Amino acid sequence: MRDMGIKDLPGGRRLARRLFSAGALVPPGKRLGELPGTRQAYGDVLHIALPAIAELVLMSLIGSADTIMVGQLGRNALAAVSLPGQPRMIMLALFFALNVGVTAIVARRKGEGRREAANQTVRNALLLSFSLSAVVAVLAVLFAEPLMRLAGGHTRTTEDAEVLKGAVDYFTIMAWALPLNAVGMCINAALRGVGDTRIPLKVNVISNLVNVVFNFLLIYGHLGFTPMGIRGAAIASVIGMAAGTTLSILAVFHAPGSYLRVTLKDNWRLDREAMRAIVKVGGNAIVEQASVRVGFFVYTRLMYSLGVTMFAAHNIAMQFLALTFNFADGLSVAATSLVGQNLGRGRRDLSLLYGKVTQRVAFALSLLLGALTALFREPLARLFIDPGTPDAGNVILFAGQALLVVALMQPFQMSAVVLSGALRGAGDNLYVAAVMMLCVSLLRPLMTWLAVDVFHLGLAMTWLLSLSELGLRLAMFYRRFGGGKWAFKRV
Questions:
Q1: Tag placement on the chain: N or C end, fewer CB within 10 Å?
Q2: CB 84 within 8 A of CB 171
Q3: Number of domains in the chain
Q4: Residue 367 sits in which domain range?
């Protein structure tokens, strides 16, 4: 029996084929060789994406377990561990940006068949990450309380003073562990660049499980340990982080069969070409990360002005926004790796194909996640706070309303994240940075300010207005990727 072409298919199947089949995603005029079949193309994406999704989602779930454990102490404790969130992300922004460069450059070097250049990139990135993280850690510790106050903390009431004190303690302990975090993140970024997402999965699962075990021991004081509350949660996170970084180091220092192989006997001098490439791609990503973190910082400060109850509900909803973001981010890892590797091989058509395939997977997954979030919003919200603590009923009610907005925004969020990952894989970071600056640094805080201070809207409508920028973000990334300029970037 002959294979049916698109024109031979019934209407519904014809539309599905046009939207999802590999042959329909790359026009004949843009093909530079034979394309993989649809099954193989989706299989290639999922081979990289599934371990990355599993890693990021499990990390998010275990992080949520962390929040649930602290939340049993009440809304003040929940607010205290939430307040340092954006200052800590600002602290990490430099390293997120450098790692964008590491992933893109290592992927490109693998595609070019330059294994030693890929390993040299890793060595230079490790030196840079460790040195910078030590400096940032000291500054973060010195300015911990001013940063928490800048994030919205204050001492106008006894309750607010308690939140501020807990936030400063938590942030300070986490800041001291920054060098550990930075080194582990750098190695995992390099592994993702060569398409190895399984090792980061194992590393982060073990790291976070260690974190949860020590949360159980240190927050509440089980098995003879002293109950330490919020400080115990921070110390448990550091112990988990140390375990993960140790495993990451072992993965590249003692892995004979790995594409990436680093030893102490290697040349650890800074290499001009490697550093230039990291700084070129990562430097553009720094603009993106800085603008995003400033935008989220202002956004969080505005949300904290709604009061402790609303802020606690807001952070429950943020747990699920972060969880669904991690599904998209896992797919984005596949897009970055496959786009970068195929550009290194000179196959722009395959980069286009894999970018589109990954976005299609993201769209289908977003519909499922949106439906599940909407259906189970209230039971999920109840997990995060002890119903017997003060005002817990209102926290659950407001969180459930915000989760409806999370559900509605899934298709916009997931597709935008994946397309931005494809553009990063091509080294088109400056455009991504410009879009993120416009949408996250300007529009989201502006919309939030209008909702909170001008229109005095409730939490759900504030979320809806603030996340409306996702539509513009998706449109701009979609147009850029379809235009094809990214395919000619040199890194």
A1: N
A2: yes
A3: 1
A4: 28-488
